[in-house]
Amino acid sequence: MLNQTWNHGSVQALYELPFLELLYQAQSVHRQNFDNEKMELCTLLSVKTGACPEDCAYCPQSGHYKTGLEKEKLMDVNLVVSQAKQAKAQGAKRFCMGAAWKNPPKKDFPKVLEMVKKVKELGLEACVTLGTLDQDQAKALKENGLDYYNHNLDTSPEYYEEIITTRTYQERLNTLENVRDAEINVCCGGIIGMGESREDRVKFLLQLVNLPKHPESVPINRLIATKGTPLENVKQLDDFEFIRTIAVARVMMPKSKLRLSAGRDDMSETMQALCYMAGANSIFFGDTLLTASNPETHADMQLMKKMGFKREAQKDAC
């Protein structure tokens, strides 16, 4: 499957397989490439919250919408390190830091670089999502030890303009190119259930699989319809369609980590289990996901025990 050339017809054919057959294929591909008992635990912290100039229709942090979210300045480095230590103690392997920016401000960027360096010193993998990056910024992040950069494509190129108007699809692709050129691992996925069609989901996955290299990490988010955003009244996507998307992504990107991301708090244990059966092998771990709720830590640990999962090992501190 790794070297298979995918097109619209072949991806559509996967989606149309009987549900159990699709899960069987996805689980078979997963077992060929990963330890089926291991789960990657990542923690995501909002280090700069709200007042984002982007108009992403799903995002409560956008300055364009009234969602009741209070804006906060960039966090102090020592506080971020304290949060990272707590995440590691709870079992996280990777610590991700998100800032609500269109691109990193010059005055704040050195502080972010320090955060990355300090997180790495704890023995955690470091990931950031800061918006658009130029080549020099990507290089500086790499020099300070960054392991992953998250920059999602969100949806298909065709549906993208229905969701975002302040940043083009090509700008996102350019940032991914800068990240890859700096030899930083790419974390790139999207959001399912924003009112897009299945065809949009097919085209979105084709965009991911046809990047110069499959993203090392692929977060698949389920829309959290937040009051005050343009998508607050979007009907929730059918559970089976979401699980199908996870399974299709696993078959198409056999060696990528698939992260079950935002929206888990509204999923039953059974639905999550089917997503893991479909090939998801990474989760965001912790009670809060940026500004959204996430399953409580003890609930995740209980589900992992029921599933027989073991967390992926952490690295030793530097």
Could you provide a short overview of the structure?
The protein has 318 residues and is an alpha/beta fold.
Helix content: 25-40%
The stretches of 5 or more residues where confidence is low (pLDDT under 50) are none
Which H/E pattern describes the elements? Answer: HHEHEHEHEHHEEHEHEHEEEHE
Characterize the largest beta sheet: strand count, sense, and whether it forms a barrel.
10 strands, parallel
Q: Mean pLDDT, rounded to whole units?
A: 88
**Cα-atom radius of gyration:** 18 Å
Strand content: 15-25%
Q: Tally the beta strands.
A: 12
What class, by secondary structure content?
A: alpha/beta
Count of helical stretches: 11
From the N-terminal CA to the C-terminal CA, the straight-line distance is: 37 Å
Overall outline: globular
